[in-house]
Design brief:
The complex is a heterodimer of chains A (about 675) and B (about 350). Chain A has about 675 residues and is an alpha+beta fold. In chain A, about 30% of the residues lie in helices and about 25% in strands. Chain B is α+β, with helices and mostly antiparallel strands and about 350 residues long. Chain B has eleven helices and nine strands. In chain B, the strands form two sheets. Chain B has a seven-stranded mixed sheet, with helices on both faces. In chain B, strands 2-3 form a two-stranded antiparallel ribbon. In chain B, strand 6 and strand 7 form a beta hairpin. Classes of the chains: A alpha+beta (about 675), B alpha+beta (about 350). At the A-B interface, helix 2, helix 6, helix 9, helix 11 and helix 12 of A face helix 5, strand 1, strand 4, strand 5 and helix 8 of B.
């Protein structure tokens, strides 16, 4: 809301510099984003919050200034007589839907000469950001900017039947508004009709047919109070946000229709030679009553944490045009002014006291409380984040949305995609179903900026709709790794990215004290390469997948480098984490290691070998590692050399050489029999 | 006849003088000082063959020779060993200027780090952290927070709707309603996380961002308690020396409502470009819980009062780190992430 300082001074004396005024008003709740000096004037741009429509006018702002500086407020004069001097021009007003229009005030003016407004009036409109049109329309706009109440001027001779009928639209009604657009209207919209047809959309915009033109001689002035919700609904439906609708939907002053009409009348007499030809008609079937709120000083003190005097309470409220009637010691029945649409409860009055007492005068205190409690889910999430950062994965955050194309490429594992009913762009058409899609996008972004060693993780929500239509929200851990251990670097072992990812995931599981897990061959993940798809199984349940990005997607995204991905159902993993710690005494006898290098078929999986050895039931076998894998060279085709390191330990005694020899032979015999292994 | 000890000494000196390597030196040591076969031990055995009167003098002379040999050999060995170590060091030299193994610690996302920091501050202040879904109902997101349908305040919170009347939460303030429904006062609750508004991307807007929302409800909680808790919190997030001010503000779920400014962290409140010369930076919205919000969530507004505030975590990150475009937070560019 643009407010001219020169104009404001009509209503209140202001001695403060603009900087000071801006600061003082901000501290009592009226914030000017900025002000600018225009010729001899200063124009403030106030951000008026939606609860204070009374400040959407110069008089409204002047009232705040007057209260702030304890100076008198001078209201602008209106026409003294609103009665026709000569014969009455006939007109009638009928309100058919008083629920949406509690009050409608009309006045007919004759002898109007439509011409440009005088310079002072045009200047003020321009300062407040409005374009001057002609003196009649300008006066209605001037009063809107001055008093905050929207008015409308009809060309009286274009109103058929000389009457105004306020009623909801009949089904299928259409009308052309001032902006030349034909509008289809629904039966919930309130219209101003003449004897035959709609001439304005109530509180939103007038009709083209009854517009003021150069030939207009007689004007019907409308000043009404419309239901805020109705105006808001209509304005939203039609996409028509006018200055009038903006004020009506926030709540205009229901008690100033006559004052505003008198003010407009006086100005039209001055600048357009108008005279009253049809006396004021104020149709107000059920008068609205001011809001009365009981205020207890004690309640205000308790809510604010500051002492207040009765004198302060009364003088502050009176300066803001409230009427506090004493109703006991420190108790008042406060009648609220009709322009304060925000008044409803005692707390609203207490805020007025706080505003003028000054928020800075409220002492800061701290109340002791009980012990705080972290969210269990977040505790696990933060532990996982710490572990993932520790193993070298950077933390990513992607938008929770997905485009159609991403869903095609990265379908989720559970539920149907959830469409956004009102997407902003193609990118926000759906909620994401995987983290993988976003992580691949992030990898690509980094590739495009010449970073080809990328390791990322993200813990976030993915979404899927159940058959019932209910949307399920799951917390998922996503990981992406590409570029080996270290990118181009002297210390980089080649081709180890998958095992880096797997190792990192397992390190994290270990750090989170996960229940026993296994990584097993997997299948059926559309975005993973079937040749390397694996699944994470924890306590017998598949809780995630990992593997290389599908070659077709790698190609489609022009990645030219293998990208490895993991996606883990974090919420479902959580119950398996942080198993309680039980201490196991340290072994007192030494362990013995034995390495076995064997040739096995190239299709033999390490997991099968390890599981088989475990099933031999050698209780002294405490660890089994794969310390070397080798194929090609001297190794016959179709074979692979594996070196296993077996670690034996007995908790009760030192193992003898013979015992260890026997364990090793036992393992070797098994490998020979089961895998056709040859000792190298 | 007694051996001429002086001659023995001269032989030893010549022998040691000729030993130029560590090995040769050890051979000299074994030859002269060997326990059984060593020359000095062998000569000492002849002590008994000498007449009694000569024995003390011979014995003393031989002991003196042993001492001489031990100390000379010790010195020589030490010198040669040091030389050998130096030679070995030279050949085993590590080029310590080669790059260290490229171990990497991951970079924490700046917003997630702040989120975790903020939550831990609140745990220390005695609050319970609530982890809530991002999909909400109209009721929890708007209506129970005194923002009924067609309320103009909803204009600033353009919402993404989902099928079935659900929506993506536009703030974390719904923690107020959930906490009051599920706990009895005293209540201290905080919820942080992603929120969504239908704003196109520009330097300061994103359709998704992060918020932290706070609620305290008890008997006789005052606006002074709001100010005190806020100040404690803001000092921990920004700097112990910052100052804070509250201005009247409007949020439908609080009354009185306040906009909260902190003294500009770039100029310490003196006035600079970042604070548009005012010395203050608007940081969050706060207020006393609206009596209607209390009542709607089943808390008696005649008995209890409370405070609430909500802040953008992204906004704090932008201020703290001077990030000039909110979009950077969601691109996951390593050149960006590794700066934090």
């Amino acid at each position: 809301m643009k407010i001219s300082l020169e104009w404001l001074r009509d209503y209140v004396d202001i001695r403060q510099k603009p900087e000071r005024l801006k600061e003082d008003l901000a501290l009592s709740g009226l914030v000017a984003e900025s002000f600018s000096r225009v010729a001899d004037d200063v124009v403030f741009d106030f951000e008026v919050t939606s609860n204070r429509p009374d400040c959407l006018s110069h008089v409204g702002v002047a009232r705040e200034v007057a209260a702030r500086y304890r100076r008198p407020l001078r209201l602008p004069p209106g026409s003294e007589s609103l009665t026709a001097a000569g014969p009455e021009v006939p007109y009638g007003i009928e309100i058919r839907d008083p629920d949406l229009c509690p009050r409608y005030t009309g006045l007919v003016l004759d002898g109007v000469e439509v011409r440009p407004s005088p310079p002072w009036l045009e200047r003020r409109l321009v300062a407040a950001g409005m374009r001057p049109l002609n003196n009649v329309v300008d006066v209605t706009n001037y009063v809107l900017l001055e008093l905050g109440h929207p008015l409308h001027a009809f060309d009286y001779h274009r109103l058929r039947g000389g009457k105004i009928v306020v009623a909801r639209a009949a089904p299928g009604t259409k009308m052309t508004t001032l902006d030349g657009v034909v509008r289809g209207l629904d039966p919930e919209m309130l219209l101003i009709n003449d004897g035959e047809r709609p001439v304005a959309i109530a509180g939103v915009m007038g009709g083209l047919d009854s517009e003021i033109s150069e030939s207009t001689r007689t004007v019907l002035l409308e000043c009404a109070y419309f239901d805020p919700r109705s105006v808001r609904r209509t304005s939203k439906r039609l996409g028509l946000l006018t200055e009038a609708a903006y004020r009506f939907e926030r709540g205009a002053d229901w008690n100033d229709t006559v004052t505003a009409t008198a003010r407009a009348c006086r100005l039209l007499q001055e600048v357009a030679g108008a005279r009253v030809a049809g006396s004021l008609q104020d149709v107000y079937p059920t008068p609205l009553r001011p809001v009365v709120i009981e205020l207890r000083r004690r309640n205000a003190e308790n809510l604010l944490g500051v002492r207040l005097t009765d004198r302060f309470v009364v003088s502050t409220l009176e300066r803001l045009e409230f009427k506090p009637e004493p109703a006991g010691k420190g108790i008042w029945q406060v009648s609220c002014p009709s322009f304060r649409a925000d008044m409803e409860l005692e707390a609203d009055l207490i805020e007025e006291l706080a505003r003028f007492r000054g928020y800075d005068k409220i002492p800061t205190t701290v109340r002791g409380g009980g012990a705080g409690t972290p969210s269990p889910a977040r505790r696990i999430e933060n532990a996982a984040r710490g572990a993932l950062l520790g193993v070298g994965y950077h933390e990513a955050v992607n938008l929770s949305f997905a485009a159609d194309s991403e869903l095609q490429q990265f379908p989720g594992s559970e539920g149907a995609p959830v469409p956004v009913s009102n997407p902003l762009t193609e990118e926000t058409r759906f909620l994401r179903t995987t983290l993988a899609a976003g992580l691949v996008k992030s990898v690509k972004h980094n590739f495009n900026h010449d970073n080809r060693l990328v390791r990322l993780f993200e813990i976030g929500h993915v979404f899927g709709a159940r058959a019932s239509g209910e949307v399920e929200e799951r917390r998922v851990l996503g990981m992406a790794a590409t570029g080996g251990f270290a990118g181009a670097n002297w210390a980089n072992p080649a081709g180890a990215t998958f095992f880096h990812l797997k190792g990192a995931l397992e390190a994290v599981l270990a750090a989170l004290r996960s229940a026993r897990w296994e990584v097993l061959p997997g299948e059926g993940v559309p975005w993973l390469d079937p040749a390397g798809t694996a699944r994470l199984v924890v306590a017998g349940e598949t809780l995630g997948v990992l593997g290389p990005l599908h070659p077709a997607l790698e190609e489609q995204h022009k990645l030219r480098q293998r990208v490895f991905l993991a996606e883990i159902e974090f919420d479902r993993l959580a119950p398996h984490l942080f198993r309680p710690v039980t201490f196991e005494p340290l072994p007192r006898y030494p362990a013995v290691e034995r390495d076995l290098s064997v040739l096995v078929g190239a299709d033999a999986e390490f997991r099968e070998i390890a599981a088989g050895i475990e099933q031999l039931g050698i209780s002294e076998l405490v660890a089994l590692d794969l310390i070397d894998v080798y194929e090609g060279g001297k190794i016959p085709a179709g074979k692979r050399s594996m070196t296993l390191r077996l670690r034996f330990q007995d908790r009760a005694r030192t193992l003898t050489i013979d015992q260890v020899q026997a364990f090793g032979d036992n393992v070797l015999t098994f490998l020979r029999k089961k895998f056709g292994a040859e000792l190298r | 006849m007694a051996t001429d000890v002086n001659e023995l000494r001269a032989r030893f000196d010549a022998d040691l003088g000729a030993a130029s390597t560590l090995e040769a030196c050890k051979t000299v040591r074994d030859r002269w000082l060997g326990r059984e076969q060593g020359i000095i031990s062998a000569e000492m055995k002849r002590l008994r063959e000498l007449p009694a009167v000569q024995r003390p003098a011979f014995g003393a002379a031989m002991n003196e020779l042993r001492g001489h040999a031990e100390s000379e050999l010790g010195r020589a060995l030490e010198r040669l060993q040091a030389e050998a170590r130096r030679a070995a060091e030279a050949s085993a030299r590590i080029d310590v200027t080669r790059p260290g193994f490229p171990l990497q610690i991951g970079a924490e996302h700046p917003i997630k780090r702040l989120q975790a920091e903020i939550e831990s501050i609140f745990v220390a202040l005695g609050f319970e952290i609530w982890d809530l879904p991002e999909i909400e109902t109209e009721h929890y997101n708007f209506e129970a927070l005194n923002m009924p349908a067609n309320h103009p305040a909803r204009d600033s919170q353009d919402t993404f709707y989902l099928p079935g009347g659900k929506l993506l939460r536009t703030h974390c303030s719904s923690v107020q309603v959930h906490a009051m429904e599920q706990r009895k006062p005293p209540i201290r609750a905080v919820s942080t996380g992603k929120v969504y508004r239908r704003d196109p991307f520009d330097a300061t807007h994103s359709p998704m961002f992060y918020q932290a929302d706070v609620l305290a409800v008890d008997e006789r909680i005052t606006m002074g308690d709001l100010k005190g808790t806020l100040l404690l919190f803001l000092k921990q997030v920004f700097h112990p020396d910052i100052r804070m001010r509250l201005r009247p503000g409007f949020f439908p779920f609080v009354e009185p409502g306040a906009e909260v400014d902190i003294s500009c962290i770039f100029c310490d409140g003196k006035g600079c470009g970042k604070c548009k010369g005012s010395g203050w930076i608007e940081i969050l919205g706060a207020g006393m819980v609206h009596p209607k919000v209390l009542a709607m969530s089943g808390v008696d507004p005649a008995r209890y009062t409370g405070f609430a505030w909500g802040m953008g975590i992204d906004r704090v990150a932008i201020l703290k780190y001077g990030v000039d475009n909110i979009r950077l937070f969601f691109e996951n560019d390593l050149r960006f992430l590794t700066q934090f």
